[in-house]
Structure prediction request, 126 residues.
Amino acid sequence: MEKRIDGLTEFLAQTQAIYEQAQLIDLDMDKNELAQLKRLQELFDSRQETIEALAAQGTSEWSADEQAIIAKIQQTEIQLQPLMQTVQEQFSAQMTRLGQTRKVSGKYAGAYRQTASGGSFIDQRK
Prediction:
């Protein structure tokens, strides 16, 4: 039981760290540094490991202390969900813009290419 409380406390700390890191991310994805986004992903990965460890311990009956920690986790998750939804939408929008830019620039790429002459010199004088 003590091990589950430690796991839940770690889970709460990780969830709060994710929330704090998500607040630092600018909605304009171009302004964010790669390190910020990588840190967020690392926090999610470590939290996933904690979830798997807690699941392995079982979820039979929760003590009053465990239920208090779970309530704090739920409150943090309620605050985190809309924030992460907004971040995900902005990231998807940026990916769409990048795809459109690549598609448009591909259409004009041929207009500026030189035709290959195959290594021969063609004299244009008459």
